[in-house]
Batch of 2 targets.
Target 1
Amino acid sequence: MPRILITLGDPAGVGPEVIDLALASGKLPTGFEFAILGDRSAGIPGKPDKASARAALDALHESVHQLKIGSAQAVVTGPVSKENLQALGFSFPGQTEFFADAFGVEDYGMLLTGATLSVGLATIHEPLARVPELLTEEKIIRIGQLTADFLKRRGVTQPRIAVAGLNPHAGENGAFGDEEMRIIQPAINRLNQAGFAQFSGPAVPDAIFRDAALGNFDAVIAMYHDQGLIPLKLLDFDTAVNVTLGLPVPRTSPDHGTAFGIAGKHQANPSSMIHAIRLACELATRRKDAS
């Protein structure tokens, strides 16, 4: 029976509540063992502190240990406060980077997938002002390959992936920026030459997500965090799941934060957690079948 780890996240947030609701929902697949990691007693709902952050961090480290020794086949991570973790010396922008470092993976990426959209991110947790200087052909190629592999693992045999431009109107032939001509188009050409999938673009950012939502593409590669997450959360807030691509084991999480303001008030919606657990189970099963 595959064993799926679920970390509580910060126990002062909604993590414990949405996990309990998900496990009691009757919407999870059978044939899996679900193991919850974390100390519930370390947090008072709505009142995060160092103790609750420490509990969240300890659960992350324990999940890595269990995955490395093979006692679990996937992990679903509850929401954490990055600010509170960093006050304890957590040196990563987010959990994505933590897991990549823990497994020694340099070729990794973040993808969000929901009922309507799937979005891979060329850059992740970076200041917006730095995105143009951080954007490279290699980063776009990496997330393109990882996204194509993710789609194929889920049964999409010939993925159609749109690559968004960085600038308004996708630069309009250099009138609003040259990153499309200088970086993005060459990356698309190289991806298509490699034959991983069918890549299109650079696409006008304010229109391409509508095309994908209508089913014309299986995924979109966004150039930066909010470019991809704003349309995704608008359309798929309750079903969106965060996936770390490139790890040797599946890691998913609900695409929402700790929501300290509603923690303990019985207002939290477990839908994203349910989808995160379901996807972890699916990926763990597909990984087992492929081995």
Note: DSSP finds ten helices and ten strands in the chain.
Target 2
Amino acid sequence: MKKRQFLAFLSITIISWLLAIGLPLVTPSAVVAQSNVGLLVSAAASLKDALEEIKPIYQQSKPNVNISYNFGASGALQQQIEQGAPADVFISAAKKQVDALEQKGLLVPGSRANLANNRLVLIVPKNVVGIRSFYNLTDAKIKKIAIGEPRSVPAGQYGEQVLKKLGIFDKVKSKLVLANNVRQVLASVESGNADAGLVYITDAKISDKVKIVVAADDKFHSPIVYPMAVIKNSKNIPTAKEFLQFLSGSQAKAVLKKYGFIVSS
């Protein structure tokens, strides 16, 4: 009994001493709660500004989650994931790329959801006048039209569909300047290296160097939808699922709407 009393006294003494010199008492559960989790999100380039603004909002409630973004053309990101590049979450600017990953069994079953929708617009440098419709792209004064590479850039795929539906693709094909992603298209028009370009309305809205001529009619192209999903090889699947849930919530939707994305209420 005396031995037990001595051990109890010793424990109390040690704890008191630790508190006196300012050392915190760390429990295993506290260590787990404070450990940082890294989350790599591969996302379509057109989401860059919105996702960058969403990041600190998410981290207010999840300070232990470190989010890193890998922005690029959806097709290029798809290929990276297929080749084994690390990624926890994939957000594409079209269904095609996510469909391909799903068919190959590279997504966590049941994690797929749609983030938002968008619109395709024709833009020109801000000081340009006389361009009022897609048909003006056939005018002799239009020398270069920037468009995403249709095979890897969804915006380019949608743009090609519009030009073909309007019956002007063959007339403007020689003028097309293909870009690696939609933000390169925007930059080309901003700099004047292209006389016109096809981008999402969300891209056009972040620039004060371009103006929107007209929005493409939705019936002229496939639905512009942004599907998202958790990658099966992720080492942080529960955290990745939580992030997707947040993106589907009201705070994230408010940011997406601010940038011109179309979100469900």
Note: DSSP finds eleven helices and ten strands in the chain.
